[in-house]
Amino acid sequence: MTSLAARLVIGLACVLATGGSVAPAADPADASFRLAQEGYRYEFPRDHGAHDAFRTEWWYYTGHLETAEGRRFGFELTFFRRAIAPDQVETRPSRWSVDQLYLAHLAVTDVKGQRFHFHDRISRAGLGKAGADATHLHVWLDQWRAESSEGTGDQQKLEAKADGVALSLTLDPAKPLVLHGERGISKKGAAVGQASHYYSFTNLATSGTLTIGTETYRVTGTSWMDHEFGSADMGAELAGWDWFSIQLADNRELMIYRLRHTDGSSDAASSGTLVFPDGRTQHLSATDIQLTALDTWTSPTSNATYPSRWQVSIPSLELSLKLTPLLADQELRTTRSTQVTYWEGAVAVEGTERGQAVQGHGYVELTGYAERIEKKLYRMLLRNFR
Questions:
Q1: Residue in 276, 273, 306 with CA at minimum distance from that of residue 288
Q2: Looking at residue 45, what is its pLDDT?
Q3: Mean pLDDT in the chain?
Q4: DSSP H helical segments within 191-258, as ranges?
């Protein structure tokens, strides 16, 4: 999820990332940060950790969980890191001076209860309140954390607790991680550096506990993890993006992101990745993908109108999928952290491929449909966190 992270942190309306994450043109004022460009050599478990040389980074988890009795849930746990340019950092010596901000979002979809729970947090990287290790996966904000061992870093553990909801999950890769775009360079525009480094674990066997209210459920399921880092912010011509992560029952996965111009048209940098059961990947360009909104939903809280239900087609594969939200209202209003409103939720997937039925589940992220926050919020964050 690309631009979301950048805009979340600086208070713009979402999405750079891809990842989910959408990346924008580099700001000349931020020449101190490294751009995402060809030639970067991935090395794991190091690259599961933080990359402070890049301005923006996020670790993004979504998943579908189920009890032994068949009660279904969706979840999202996301950590964002935003570096502050050296000329904007408080120069007075202080352990509380800011050069890194951390934000996190937690959401749980209770399908049977028809309830959507979400929480958000923000902190500076100081005095141990928030941070990320540079050698392996270990990112935290207060008691929320995602971490792995210092060895291979394959098994991952998630912990988060907030009012009325908590999760404690163990995630084990069922297939290797995949690099998106061209050798891990996910382009979000034509300009040099208008991109991010982006990889995913698209199939993580998941087990643990989920607590809602006073009830704790033992759950199993499948999760998806995105990790993305770069330094460019989304271009002014882009309004936001639509991101799809789809896990099919035949052990294939599909990631698609559509970058939207302010006039509603799709940017040519929109793309996707098809992951085969053996871990091989097929890059999909914007012309390979057809996305059609079948309905809309208007939030009674924000008054934003979002697409709801989608037809996703890959004509070259004769693949046509219909995505239906498990709950209409899966809108996050992050008033405690980024003050950005966006929709991200669990969906059911069904369709056909060459005349044969296919099914699965997934997650969809929709940004830039609600009123967006301007850079003045970023300046407000700096004042509050120095």
A1: 273
A2: 93
A3: 86
A4: none
Please report where in the chains the tokens 């909801």 appear, as a residue: 165
The DSSP code for 97 is: -
Nearest alpha-carbon partner for 336 in 33, 184, 122, 47: 122
Answer with the residue of higher pLDDT: 124 or 224: 224
- pTM comes to 0.89
Q: How confident is the model at residue 97, as a pLDDT?
A: 57
Burial 121-131 (b: 16+ CB within 10 A, else e): bbbbbbeeebb
Give the residue, 72 or 5, on which the prediction is more confident: 72
Per-residue confidence (pLDDT) for residue 257, from 0 to 100:
93
Q: Which tokens sit at 126?
A: 């100081």
Answer yes or no: is pLDDT of 95 > 60: no
What integer pLDDT is reported at residue 125 of this predicted model? 86
d(CA 1, CA 190): 18
- pLDDT of 84: 81
Q: 2-26+46-385 falls under which CATH superfamily? A: AttH-like domain (2.40.370.10)
H/E run at residue 244 = strand 238-248
Dihedral sign for Cα 170, 176, 178, 183, please: positive
Q: Would you list the domain boundaries of the chain?
A: 2-26+46-385
DSSP codes of every residue in 111-171: TTTTEEEEEEEEEES-TTSEEE-SSSSEEEETTEEEEE-SSS--SEEEEEEETTEEEEEEE
Provide mean pLDDT across the span 230-236: 81
| Nearest to 118, CA basis, from 76, 170, 64, 168 | 76
Distance, in Å, from the CA atom of 49 to the CA atom of 59, rounded to the nearest integer, reads 9
Where are any strands of DSSP class E within 26-92?
Answer: 56-66, 72-83
* Distance, CA of 173 to chain centre: 18
